[in-house]
């Protein structure tokens, strides 16, 4: 889930991402994705922009036959954490740090690919989709999710950043969500060599403890990490506190439950 200068996390931030953001949103999103599709019989699976491996591990848990599962991400820290947090079991996992526009795989290597909330970060989306098509065989399935709109929680985050950091930080906070035109995305997928189905809406709730420590960890496990740390620890604590205040509307007991919705695209390589 990374691209040049868009999701470049430190090793600590990547591990926090795995510990916090995967259970809060990307693990549940992976399960919701798998519940929404008919998983084909396959022997080789590619997780494009795999982050710390949430989708790869989720699909592996549903397969009863041995499979080669490859995760590819530009961010080396993400790949290191994915490798450290994965047990092969009956499957063969590989973790590769490489740009999506030039993945080190042969033509037609895979018969199923996922890209969970990575496409929006790619600087050259058509090239990324063409490269993904290259490494898939004819008839292979591609499953892509992209956010459908800016979630209310991240509007809160952006507003706080505008007040206490700057507009650049605010824009960075909502960048994953603003490229969300379903028709444009579907056309790009089709033009890359796929028959793309009409996308489905895929709702999911982001859940996280409603406490200061968790919020500090949440905001530091993002591309704004460097800007936040440069502002000083007191500033980080203040910003986290202000976000918690703004997010109070989402509180259910001791948990924040925040709605988000994605587009889910399923396409077949032709």
From TrEMBL:
Record bears the keyword Transferase: yes
Keywords assigned: Methyltransferase, Transferase
SUPFAM superfamilies: S-adenosyl-L-methionine-dependent methyltransferases (SSF53335)
Occurrences of domain Methyltransferase type (ranges): 46-144
InterPro entries: Methyltransf_11, SAM-dependent_MTases_sf
UniProt keyword Phosphoprotein, yes or no: no
GO BP term, example: methylation
One Pfam family it belongs to: Methyltransf_11
GO molecular function: S-adenosylmethionine-dependent methyltransferase activity
Superkingdom in the source lineage: Bacteria
PANTHER family (alphabetical): 2-METHOXY-6-POLYPRENYL-1,4-BENZOQUINOL METHYLASE, MITOCHONDRIAL, METHYLTRANSFERASE
Name listed for the protein in its UniProt record: Methyltransferase domain-containing protein
């Amino acid at each position: 889930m990374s691209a040049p200068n868009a999701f470049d996390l430190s090793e600590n931030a990547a591990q926090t991402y795995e510990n916090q953001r995967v259970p809060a949103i990307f693990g549940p999103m992976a399960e919701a994705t798998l519940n929404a599709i008919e998983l084909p019989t396959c022997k080789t699976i590619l997780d494009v922009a795999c982050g710390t491996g949430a989708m790869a591990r989720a699909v592996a848990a549903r397969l009863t036959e041995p499979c080669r599962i490859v995760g590819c991400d530009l961010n080396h820290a993400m790949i290191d954490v994915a490798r450290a947090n994965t047990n092969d079991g009956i499957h063969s996992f590989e973790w590769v740090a490489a740009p999506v526009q030039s993945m080190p795989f042969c033509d037609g290597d895979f018969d199923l690919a996922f890209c969970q909330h990575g496409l929006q970060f790619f600087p050259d989306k058509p090239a990324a989709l063409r490269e993904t098509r290259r490494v898939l065989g004819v008839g292979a399935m591609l499953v892509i999710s992209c956010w459908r709109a800016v979630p209310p929680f991240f509007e809160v985050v952006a507003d706080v950043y505008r007040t206490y950091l700057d507009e650049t930080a605010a824009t960075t906070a909502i960048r994953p969500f603003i490229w969300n035109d379903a028709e444009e995305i579907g056309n790009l997928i089709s033009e890359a060599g796929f028959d793309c189905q009409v996308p489905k809406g895929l709702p999911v709730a982001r859940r996280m403890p409603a406490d200061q420590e968790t919020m500090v960890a949440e905001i530091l496990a993002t591309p704004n990490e460097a800007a936040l740390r440069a502002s000083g620890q007191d500033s980080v604590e203040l910003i986290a506190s202000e976000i918690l205040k703004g997010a109070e509307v989402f509180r259910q007991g001791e948990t924040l439950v925040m709605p988000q919705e994605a587009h889910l695209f399923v396409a077949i390589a032709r």
